[in-house]
Amino acid sequence: MAVIRKKFSKHLSTIKENEGSVAVLTLGLFLMTLAFATLMTDIASIAIAKRSLIHASEAAVVRAVQSLDESSYYNGKNAIAIPINCSMARMKVIQELGLWMQGGGQMLRPELVEIALVDFYCLDNVIRISTTAKAKLPFRLPNSTLVNVDIHASVGAQSNRQN
């Protein structure tokens, strides 16, 4: 019986020495898991904002590509392509991007702060635009100046005549 008490008391002293290390490990793993979840949420938010910017840019290009240059079309200057009125197309792109910004929760994701037209290219039957926006991060690291992330999108469209 004395041998069992001796072994048991030795085992108890070992447990008492290591008692706080499990709590420290558990706290450390919890903090790492929390930081990883925060980082993944920020990355997912940026990806969703990028997809929303692409949708807005695509909508603007589709609306712009429908701007028919009537004089070139009816004079038959373009045999294959349907000509686009570039000045009207540019106005339609700006209008559509403005509608997306004013649309609020119906069309625009809350992560996007502002959408801006960076580049507009129009020639004959081709339109390409580049847009940029700021995406708000849902979680902000302490002592970090990173609040918004700049995202960019480029889309294009072409109008063709079906034979």
Spatial strand sequence of the major β-sheet: 1-2-3
What is the total domain count? 1
**DSSP helix count?**
4
How many individual β-strands?
Answer: 3
Shape: rod-shaped
The helix content, as a percent range, equals 40-55%
| Helix and strand run | HHHHEEE
Give the mean pLDDT: 80
Strand content: 15-25%
Oligomer: single chain
Low-confidence stretches: none
Transmembrane segments: 21-40
Keywords: Membrane, Transmembrane, Transmembrane helix
Brief overview:
This protein is an alpha+beta fold and 163 residues long. The protein has helices spanning 2-17, 19-64, 70-75, 86-102; strands at residues 112-123, 126-136, 148-158.
How would you describe this structure to a colleague?
With 163 residues, this protein is an alpha+beta fold. The protein has one domain. Helices cover 52% and strands 21% of the residues. Strands 1-2-3 form a three-stranded antiparallel beta sheet, covered by helices on one side. Strand 1 (112-123) and strand 2 (126-136) form a beta hairpin. Helix 2 packs antiparallel against helix 4. Keywords: Membrane, Transmembrane, Transmembrane helix.
